[in-house]
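User: Second chain of the day. Same drill as before.
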Amino acid sequence: MVMRILDGLGQRISLAMAGKKSPWGSGSGGNDGGDKPGGTSGGGDKPKGPRNPWLPPAGGNSDDGRRAPNIEDIFKSRGPEGPRRTGGPGGPGGPNFRFPQRPGGKSWFPIAVVAIIGLGLVATSFHLIGPQQEAVVKTLGNYTRKMEPGLNFSAPFPIETVDVEDVEGVRSVRIPGNNNQAKLILTGDQNLVDLSYIVRWNISDLANYKFRVVDPIETVNEAAEAAMRASVAETELDETFSGQGRAAIEQDVRERMQRTLDGYGAGIRVLGVEIEKADPPAQVVDAFRDVQVAEQNADAARNQARGYAQQVLAQAEGEAEAFDKVYEQYRLAPQVTRQRLYYETMERVLSQTDKTIVETDNVTPYLPLPEIRRRAQQPTTTVTAPEGQ
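Assistant: Same format as last time:
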């Protein structure tokens, strides 16, 4: 819209300055085709062609509307939004249009500017700080004070600037940032482990957080990585895979990080460290799994042997206790106890052997009855001869 207005304005200025014939009448450079300078024909009193809409009639003289336009007329015929298209003299959009004025005849523009500036100053002087937030105030670029939660006041911008931060919210940093990226760390027994972990922290001192370190998040990353490498270097590989070993590493890393950040004066509180993954390097993961399976089988065999040993020991202890009880009875009645032991021994031995008891004289002294019974219970094997033989 603005470009179209500027283009039209440029064309009219060029036309007026070139002295060529205007579409609304002859130019001021001379007569054309017998027309008079006012745009009238030499043989008549009435003007020819349409009246210039950009020039108002003056005093009822028709010749005034036929003069060539000049630069002042062009600017007078335009309003702030472009050429005025409607209205006559003094009407809306006409050449005598003016903005509303105060009763004294002065413009409202200075008052509007002052009001806008005042509202801006008031808006930048009041600050509502949330319950989990704090703010730092800088006067002409230098830190001066802190703002607590609630309604606070400051000098207007740009004398004082206010930076608001959430100091209670928990922030987290994942190391490494990409889950597919390997983070190899050397353990205490000269092995490599691939670790990924999360550090959770928040702001303890907003002024130190803002002005003591250049990049707080990068500082947390570097402190976490240094603490993790130092802690894992004091731990063996197997401990990094066990739950108890991981808990000890997480606690040690958190304490190391807090000491480092406090030494920097970073204004950061480490809430916790969580190890998400602890795996061997991808190049040796298959061999490592084979070793783990072998260790599990060895543990199972050891547990089975311990169980068998405990079972045998318990059985032996039971037999010894039973023998002690029999011996006490033997001391009280030796003959009866001896006979009882004989009967029990014979019963235990004969119950596990094949035997035949013959009570009459008319029966063959020995019949292999158990052997016959055993052969009868065995399955019969049938052998089939191959065809063609």
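Residues 285-332 form the longest helix (48 residues).

User: Great, on to the next one.
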